[in-house]
Design goal:
5-stranded mixed sheet, Immunoglobulin-like, TPR_TAF2_C, transcription, globular, 30 helices, 1072 residues, Neutral Protease, domain 2, 9-stranded mixed sheet
C-alpha cells in the first residue's frame, strides 16, 4: 500500500494538461493505489518500425504524472523482459529516458532474480520467496529524478516521463504471426497482436507503464505501419495520415475514458474491415480469405448489444467496438477497452451448424467483459474475480434468453461440476483471500494472492466459482435489488468517467470486493456477514448424503442429511438454509430446512396420502397435470420423488438415496433438465429390463431436451452392457436409428442428409450424432462389440449422402468415426506381435476407414479438420487397445510446427497419454520432446495447452522411486532438473511457469524429491496424485472445439482451453 497522506500543506491545486487539477488529495483518495507514490494522468504511446522478419518494433511512451507526496527522488514503473531499454541495446541504437526532457539515470531491477539464486529444489521455499519479493516490488524500472526536476516534484507539478524501448522477439504479451515466401517476402496474412501471458495483464511486456488494474489514465496511441497493413488499438480512431512517400500510414487513437494499462491492446496486420450493417459502431476485422466467415459469424452481434444495454439499462460504454480475429491465439477471447481480440476458431461458415451456439456465447461474453472488466475495472488482482464473475453471470442470462432455460441450467450444472471436481482434487478455492491470511491457510503449493504466483488452472476455475456465487447472490437478494446494485455501479462509473479533469475521482471507476458488498448493503439494506464469511472469504463446497423415509402414521417424511467435511479435499461444513422439493400425489411442495450441524434430521409434512390407485392425474411443479402409472410405487407412500437444492443455489455435491422407481418417475415426468440428467446418472447404476425400457422411452420422447435424449442414449448402452441376460434381436438403439433416419424402403440405408434449422430438426440432428456413438459402446456378454453394429456403422460411413444438403456434414461424419472407434475392445494376449498384417478382417476394415478419413482430411480438409482429428484419436485408440503397436512417430508427424494447430494438439494429446500410462520403452525421450515443445514452440496456444495436458495427465512414471529399464535414475534426475530450470528461469512466461509449478507439485509435492538429495526429508512431502482417462483429458482441454459440444455428458468438466484455426486453410473449399 502507498503511504497514506495528503499533498503539501495548503498548496493551491495545480493546473496541468488541459486544465486537469492535481492537488488536494486525501488519504482516502489514494488508499486504493498499491505500491505507488504518484498518479499517472495520461500516457502517449507511439509504436513504429514493426519488423516481421526480426519480430520487433519500437515504442516511445510519454507519461504525464503527478507526485502524490513531495520530496520523491525516484520513479518506479513496470517493464517486461522483452522490452529493451536504450542502455540494453547496441551502441548507436538511439533512445532516451527523460524526465521533463532531461536525460535521467535509470536501471532495471527484475524481481524474478530471486528465482535464479541457488536454493533447494522445494516449492515450499520457492513459493514463499516469490510472493515476498513480488509484494515488495514497486516496479522493474527505476528512474532517478534529475536535480533540475526536484522543485517540480516537491511542488507536485505535472512531470512528463519519456521512455524509448525496443521489443525484440517477444515471448510475453505479444505474438507475431508471419510466413515468408520466395526471396524472404512477407506473405499476406501477417499480423501481430497483444495477448495475456499472465492471468491478469502483460502490457508491461511491451510498454513501460503502471501495469495495475487500479491505475487509470487517459490514452493516446499512435501506430505507424506499412501502407499495406492496418492498425487497430483501444480507443476511438481520430484519423490516419500517410507519409510523404505514401509507403507508411500512422493511425491515431484516443481513449478519453480513464482506463488502466491492463486493458490496453493493439493489433497490426493484413486485415479487411467490415462495418456491421445494423450498427455502425461495430467493426470486425478479417484476415485474408476469411471475410465471408467474419461477416456471417458477427451478423448477430448487434442483438447482443441490444440485450446487454436493455438488461443493464446502460449504453455501451465506449464510442466504438472492434472485433479482430487472429491466428494462433491461446485464448478464444482477449478483451481490451473497446477492442476484443478473438481466435479465428470462433468463426464458422454458414454451412456449419455445430459451432453456432458456442460461438455466439463467446461473442456475448466478449461484449459483457467490455462492461465489467474494461469499463468497470477491479481495484486489485484480489478483486479480479468479481469482474470476471459478473461478465460470466450476464453471459449466462444471455444464454437463458436466446438458447433457453434448459441450456442455461445445463451450463450452470457443468460449471458446478467443474468447480467441485477441481476442489476435490486440488483443494479449496477462495474468492477473496485476505492480505493478512497466512500463506498455508488453505495448504496450496502456490500463493494465489499475487497474479504472478497464482496457478492459471486455479484462476480459471476461480472465475467459474465466482460466477456461481454471483448467481447465488442474485437469488438471495432478488432480481430487482441485484440489478439496482449493478446499475448503481455502472451509473457511478459513467458519472466519473466523464470527469477527465478530476483524476482524483477516477478511483470510483474501480470496484473492490469490499466496495461491491458495501454497495449491496447501501442499495438493498441487507447485510450479508454469513454469506461473505462462507462463500467469499472462505473456500470449499458442501457435500450432502441424503436419506429419507416415509412415516405413514405421522404422514411425515423423515429426512436425514449428513456431511463429511474431512472426507475429501475442498469440502466445507455448510450451515444455512437448503431447499427441498417433494413431488407428491397431490402436487409439488417446497420446503426450506435449516442445517446447523454435520448430521441433521428434519421432518417434512406430507400434503397427500397414499392411494391404492393404478393411475392418477398428478399436478407437477410446472402447473401441468399428467396421468401417471402408479403401479410400481409404494402404495403406502404419497412421495413420487425428492429433490434437494433444485435451483443450484449452493455450491454442493448431493447424493440422494431413494428407490429406483422414484428415479424412473423423475426421468419420465419431471420437466427440469437437471433432474432428468441426475436420474439418468443414477439409473445406469441399477440395470434392469424395466430401467432399460424407461431410458429407451426417454430417448424416443420428442418433448425432452436434446441433451437429455443424447445422455439417455449412452445410459441405455451402459444399462444393456450390465444386464446378464443374453440380448435377443437387434439392439434397440439400432432399431430406433433406422426408424428415425433410415429410408422407408430400405431401413438399413440412411436417408440423404437434409439438415433444417428448426428446433425439432436440430434436436434430431444432434441425436443423430449421439445414437451411433452410443451404439458403438454396446458390448456382448463376452465383452466384444456387436458385429451387426460395426457393420451398420461402416454402412453409415459408406452410404452417407450429403449431395442435396445445404449444410455441411463434417461434424456428423466425425461423429461416425468416433462411433466406430467406440466399438474397439482390448486384444487378448496379443503381446508384442501387434501389427497391421496380423489384424482380422473386421479390424482391417476399421483401420482402413480411419486411415482413409485421415488421409482424405489431409488432402481436402473438413471444416476445422474435425474428421482428421477424430481419425487420429481413433488410430491411437487402436494402438492403446493392442490392435497396433504403440508408435509415437505417427503422432510426431502431426505434432510438427506448421501443421494445423488443433491437429497438433490432438497428436500431442496422444503423446501425453502415452507418457502418462508409460506403456512403451522410450517414454523418457517422448517426455523430453514434450517438455521441449512446451517451452520452445512458437505458438502460445500449443505451449499453454500442452502444459495443461501435462497437468491433466502427469507423467507419474518419472517421479517413481522404483527405477528400472524404462525409468533410470539419471532420467528422473534430468527431467526434475529440466522442470526446475524452467520454473526458475527469469524469462519464463508467467503462465507457463505456474503450469510447471502445478506439474512439479503433482510429481514431487512441495518438498525436495528424494532422488535429488541424500538425506531423509525433514518435513512430510505433500503430493497429490490422480489419474484421468484419455477421453476425460481430451474433454477437459477441449482440443476438438465444438465436436462434442452438443453431446457433452453432464459429469464432464467444462472445457477451459480453445482451439486455433489457420486462416490460410479455413476456407470455403473445406465445405465442398
Amino acid at each position: 500500500m502507498c503511504t497514506d497522506g495528503s499533498s503539501g500543506g495548503g498548496a493551491p491545486p495545480v493546473i496541468f494538461a488541459e486544465g486537469v487539477s492535481a492537488g488536494g488529495e486525501s488519504s482516502q483518495d489514494t488508499s486504493v493505489f498499491l505500491n505507488c507514490n504518484f498518479r499517472v494522468l495520461s500516457q502517449l504511446v507511439y509504436i513504429s518500425n514493426i519488423n516481421f522478419h526480426e519480430r520487433s518494433f519500437s515504442v516511445y511512451t510519454e507519461l504525464s504524472l503527478v507526485p502524490i507526496h513531495p520530496e520523491q527522488r525516484e520513479l518506479l514503473l513496470n517493464i517486461g523482459c522483452d522490452a529493451y531499454l536504450p542502455n540494453e541495446l547496441p551502441e548507436g541504437s538511439g533512445g532516451r529516458v527523460t524526465v521533463n526532457d532531461e536525460d535521467a539515470v535509470y536501471l532495471r531491477r527484475d524481481p524474478f532474480h530471486v528465482l535464479g539464486q541457488k536454493c533447494e529444489q522445494s516449492l515450499r521455499v520457492l513459493s514463499s520467496q516469490m510472493y515476498e519479493v513480488l509484494e515488495d516490488s514497486e516496479g522493474e524500472l527505476r528512474i532517478i529524478v534529475p536535480e533540475s526536476c526536484y522543485d517540480s516534484m516537491d511542488e507536485q507539478m505535472v512531470i512528463k516521463v519519456g521512455i524509448d524501448v525496443k521489443v525484440i522477439n517477444p515471448r510475453h504479451g505479444i505474438h507475431f504471426v508471419a510466413s515468408f515466401g520466395k526471396d524472404n517476402v512477407l506473405e499476406k496474412g501477417a499480423h501481430v497482436y497483444t495477448m495475456r501471458s499472465n492471468v491478469i495483464s502483460s502490457t508491461r511486456s511491451w510498454l513501460p507503464c503502471m501495469d495495475a488494474p487500479d491505475q487509470l489514465c487517459l490514452w493516446r496511441i499512435e501506430i505507424t505501419v506499412d501502407a499495406s497493413l492496418i492498425a487497430i488499438a483501444s480507443g476511438e480512431l481520430l484519423h490516419s495520415e500517410y507519409s510523404l512517400d505514401m509507403r507508411e500510414v500512422t493511425y491515431h487513437y484516443q481513449l478519453l475514458i480513464p482506463t488502466s494499462a491492463v486493458n490496453i491492446g493493439f493489433v497490426v496486420g493484413h486485415f479487411t474491415p467490415y462495418v456491421h450493417p445494423e450498427m455502425s459502431e461495430i467493426t470486425a476485422f478479417a484476415l485474408p480469405s476469411l471475410t465471408s466467415l467474419v461477416k456471417h459469424t458477427t451478423s448477430t452481434v448487434d442483438r447482443v448489444f441490444e440485450f446487454f444495454e436493455e438488461l443493464l439499462s446502460c449504453r455501451f460504454p465506449f464510442p466504438s467496438y472492434k472485433q479482430v480475429f487472429v491466428d494462433q491465439a491461446a485464448e478464444a477471447i482477449n478483451s481490451f477497452s473497446g477492442l476484443t481480440v478473438l481466435s479465428v476458431t470462433v468463426l464458422y461458415h454458414k454451412k456449419i451448424l455445430d459451432c453456432v451456439q458456442e460461438t455466439r456465447q463467446l461473442l456475448a461474453r466478449a461484449v459483457a467483459e467490455q462492461f465489467f472488466g474494461c469499463y468497470v475495472s477491479a481495484a486489485h488482482w484480489l478483486d479480479f474475480w468479481l469482474m470476471k464473475s459478473l461478465s460470466k453471470f450476464f453471459t449466462g442470462l444471455f444464454i437463458e434468453r436466446y438458447f433457453g432455460t434448459a441450456e442455461y441450467l445445463f451450463q450452470v450444472m457443468r460449471t458446478l461440476n467443474a468447480v467441485c471436481n477441481y476442489e476435490s482434487k486440488w483443494g479449496m478455492l477462495v474468492l477473496r483471500p485476505l492480505k493478512n491470511d497466512p500463506k498455508n491457510k488453505f495448504e496450496w503449493h502456490f500463493d494465489p494472492r499475487n497474479p504472478f504466483t497464482c496457478s492459471p488452472l486455479y484462476a480459471n476455475v476461480l472465475f467459474k466459482k465466482g460466477h456461481l456465487i454471483i448467481r447465488m447472490l442474485n437469488k438471495r437478494l432478488g432480481k430487482e435489488p441485484f440489478f439496482q446494485v449493478v446499475q448503481k455501479i455502472l451509473s457511478v462509473t459513467t458519472q466519473f468517467s466523464q470527469k477527465q479533469t478530476e483524476p482524483k475521482n477516477w478511483q470510483h471507476m474501480t470496484v473492490s470486493t469490499e466496495s461491491f458488498f458495501r454497495t449491496v448493503s447501501n442499495v438493498t439494506g441487507q447485510e450479508l456477514p454469513t454469506f461473505l464469511e462462507q462463500w467469499i472469504y472462505g473456500g470449499g463446497h458442501a457435500n450432502f448424503e441424503v436419506e429419507y423415509s416415509f412415516n405413514r402414521k405421522r404422514n411425515m417424511i423423515e429426512l436425514e442429511i449428513k456431511q463429511d467435511p474431512k472426507g475429501s479435499l475442498g469440502r466445507q461444513s455448510y450451515v444455512g438454509p437448503v431447499t427441498v422439493v417433494v413431488q407428491e400425489l397431490d402436487g409439488s411442495f417446497v420446503h426450506t430446512i435449516q442445517i446447523d450441524t454435520d448430521h441433521s434430521t428434519h421432518d417434512l409434512q406430507c400434503h397427500s396420502k397414499g392411494r391404492r390407485q393404478k393411475k392418477k392425474k398428478i399436478p407437477l411443479s410446472t402447473g401441468e397435470e399428467l396421468e401417471i402409472d402408479l403401479t410400481n410405487m409404494d402404495l403406502d407412500s404419497p412421495v413420487l420423488w425428492v429433490r434437494i437444492d433444485p435451483d443450484l443455489l449452493l455450491l454442493r455435491e448431493i447424493n440422494i438415496h431413494q428407490p429406483v422407481y422414484q428415479w424412473e418417475y423423475m426421468l419420465k415426468y419431471e420437466r427440469d433438465v437437471l433432474a432428468q440428467l441426475q436420474a439418468l446418472e443414477i439409473l445406469e447404476r441399477f440395470p434392469s429390463p424395466h430401467v432399460r425400457s424407461v431410458i429407451l422411452e426417454a430417448i424416443e420422447t420428442e418433448s425432452f431436451f436434446y441433451r437429455v435424449r443424447c445422455r439417455a442414449a449412452f445410459a441405455h448402452s451402459e444399462v444393456v452392457n450390465k444386464l446378464s441376460e443374453i440380448w435377443l434381436g437387434p439392439p434397440a438403439l439400432l432399431t430406433l436409428f433406422k426408424k428415425l433416419y433410415g429410408c422407408k424402403s430400405a431401413p438399413h440405408m440412411p436417408k440423404p442428409n437434409n439438415f433444417v434449422v428448426t428446433t425439432v430438426n436440430l434436436e434430431l440432428y444432434f441425436l443423430m450424432q449421439a445414437l451411433p456413438h452410443a451404439m458403438g459402446c454396446l458390448r456382448t456378454s463376452s465383452n466384444t462389440a456387436f458385429t451387426e453394429v460395426r457393420e451398420f456403422l461402416l454402412g453409415l460411413i459408406l452410404y452417407n449422402d450429403n449431395s442435396v444438403n445445404r449444410y455441411s456434414d463434417d461434424h456428423y461424419r466425425a461423429s461416425l468415426i468416433r462411433a466406430l472407434a467406440a466399438t474397439l475392445v482390448p486384444v487378448d494376449n496379443l503381446g508384442d506381435n501387434a501389427s497391421p498384417d496380423s489384424l482380422n478382417l473386421d479390424m482391417e476394415r476399421t483401420l482402413a476407414e480411419f486411415t482413409h478419413a485421415l488421409n482424405m482430411d489431409t488432402l481436402k480438409p473438413s471444416f476445422g479438420y474435425i474428421i482428421g482429428i477424430n481419425a487420429l484419436r481413433a488410430i491411437y485408440q487402436m494402438q492403446v487397445l493392442g490392435h497396433l503397436p504403440l508408435d509415437p512417430k505417427v503422432f510426431y508427424l502431426f505434432a510438427q510446427p506448421g501443421n494445423y494447430t488443433p491437429l497438433r494438439l490432438a497428436a500431442l494429446g496422444c503423446l501425453v497419454d502415452m507418457v502418462h500410462n508409460c506403456k512403451i520403452s522410450g517414454c523418457f525421450e517422448i517426455l523430453s520432446n514434450l517438455l521441449d515443445t512446451c517451452v520452445n514452440d512458437v505458438e502460445p496456444a500449443v505451449r499453454y495447452h500442452l502444459a495443461t495436458l501435462l497437468c491433466s495427465e502427469p507423467p507419474f512414471f518419472i517421479a517413481s522411486q522404483e527405477f528400472h529399464d524404462q525409468v533410470r535414475e539419471s532420467d528422473a534426475i534430468a527431467v526434475a532438473q529440466r522442470l526446475w530450470s524452467v520454473i526458475t528461469e527469469e524469462k519464463t512466461e508467467s503462465q507457463l511457469r505456474n503450469y510447471f509449478i502445478d506439474l512439479w507439485f503433482l510429481l514431487y509435492g512441495t518438498g525436495v524429491p528424494s532422488f535429488l538429495k541424500s538425506e531423509a526429508p525433514s518435513q512430510p512431502v505433500t503430493r497429490r496424485e490422480f489419474r484421468a482417462s484419455f477421453n476425460d483429458v481430451l474433454n477437459t482441454v477441449e482440443m476438438l472445439g465444438s465436436s462434442s459440444w452438443h453431446n457433452t455428458i453432464l459429469t464432464t468438466c467444462e472445457p477451459n482451453c480453445n482451439t486455433e484455426v489457420n486462416p490460410a486453410e479455413m476456407t470455403d473449399d473445406m465445405l465442398q
